[in-house]
Please model this.
Amino acid sequence: MDIDGVGAVVTGGASGLGAGTARALAGRGAKVAVLDLNMDAARAMADEIGGIAVECNVSDAASAEAALQAAQAAHGPTGIAVNCAGIAPAKRIVGRDGPMPLDDFRKVIEVNLIGSFNIMRLAADQMTGREPNADGERGVIISTASVAAFEGQIGQAAYAASKGGVHALTLPAARDLARHGIRVLAIAPGLFGTPMLLGMPQNVQESLAATLPFPQRFGTPAEYADLVLYMIGSPVMNGETVRIDSAVRLAPQ
Model:
């Protein structure tokens, strides 16, 4: 798909992987809507890239519907959607205070998995109204899974389940939306230099980086965004989750 001039939405676009993606898409000429709950950061990013900032709670149907409508009003029907919004709280199933509160598990699933599907369904609906290219393609949807989908660690039951759901959703969604000319993909990052990871103590960061076979450093949002751009530009990439992880395989803890 040609990115230039296409309306794009990026959830979690104000920071981390989402910010890297928003910058990369805008650099290729996309008209980017930065969807986030942190509106100060979203506005700053939108001003930087010449896009728009839209408040969005991805786990809420009405909020997401309003956000996608605002993006369409500004940029036309969405042709590219990238799901980067997510949360990663750590909690054991049974800890010192007893069992994990069910609402803690539910919230992670709602944001990471239901939120990704919420944006997927709404973006896909807009994509069906776009003119197809020579391949019959109307749009591309990319979600963010995680290596935790495959090797979830102790304390990651909720997070791993949510990201495993994103992975499992990708192929059936690609098959479902194929008749509309919409491709669906997912990226499973390993250890990336996001605000959450970079906010850890330096010794913890160094210990984590040492677990990476090569290169022994965190990935960058720009490197994540490079894969996003490649996926958008490669017409035969569809229905797949691609790891980008420096060959790491997570230990139990």
In short: The mean pLDDT is 96. The domain at 7-192+221-240 is CATH 3.40.50.720 (Rossmann fold). The first strand starts at residue 7 and ends at 11. Helices lie at 16-27, 39-49, 61-75, 102-127, 157-177, 195-198, 202-209, 221-233.
